Amino acid sequence: MNTAEELMGLAPVVPVVVLDDADAAAPLARALAAGGLPVIEVTLRTPAALDAIARIAAEVPDAVVGAGTVVRPADAERSAAAGARFLVSPGCTPSLRGAMAATGLPFLPGVATASEAIALLEDGVTAMKFFPAEAAGGVPYLKALGGPLPGVRFCPTGGVSPANAAAYLALPNVGCVGGSWLTPPDAVRAGDWDAVRALAEEAAALRPVV
Ligand code: 3PG
After folding, report:
1. Which residue of 23, 161, 165, 177 lies most exposed, with the fewest beta carbons within 10 A?
2. Which of the four CATH numbers 3.20.20.70, 3.40.50.150, 3.40.50.740, 1.10.1060.10 does domain 4-197 have?
């Protein structure tokens, strides 16, 4: 996996994970990968995040772990050093794009408008996160962006759920979707990896529904 396009082809759903306890990282990643979702985004929203990324990278060879909530240029380098294999940001600026590109890792910069997508296209970026997907306009909005911007492939995230994921996946400009529903905080706290695996299996079986 060398490009963001290839990354989006690895699984239909990317679990977006918030981890308070790095000890949970490896068993959680094993459960997700065993359920058919090997691509895992660990958000940099907790002090444990970088350690969690490192643990998954070192201990779960079946997983492809990346860093999410990359919002400062320094986050990109720190994530790469921890072992992240891709980077995701909720929005983008030229300096953040430059820092993500400088790591050499595939990255999905966040956009919510045509202008933001065009700015990235000017820099040669064609794979993006669409965030916050539901709040920004959902499936109809993303479908409309596909008219003038057919060369952009999106990973919608933010409000995506089992109820709407298949409709996003049916859009020609969607490569995969992201969401936090695969890792309910209660299940993670309790170490209920069977529950996480079952949620992953359901999500991995999702097929586009027009
Ligand atoms: C993200 O962190 O990228 C999204 O906010 C996850 O959104 P969700 O919790 O609505 O799935």
Report:
1. 161
2. 3.20.20.70
